[in-house]
Amino acid sequence: MKYYSSPLLCKNEFRNGFFTKSSFEAHPELLSQYISGDYYNCILKQVHSNKIILGSSTQTNLKIKADGIVCDKFNQNLWIYTADCMPILFADKSKRLVAAIHCGRKGLEKRIIKNLVKILYKRGCSREDLIVAIGPSISKKNYLVDKKIFNEFNKKVTNKRSITFFRKNENISNLKNLIMSKKQDLIQLDLKKHAYLQILSENIPHKNIEISNLCTYDFDNEFYSWRKTKTIFRQWNFICT
Question: Residue 143 falls within a domain, yes or no?
Answer without folding.
Answer: no
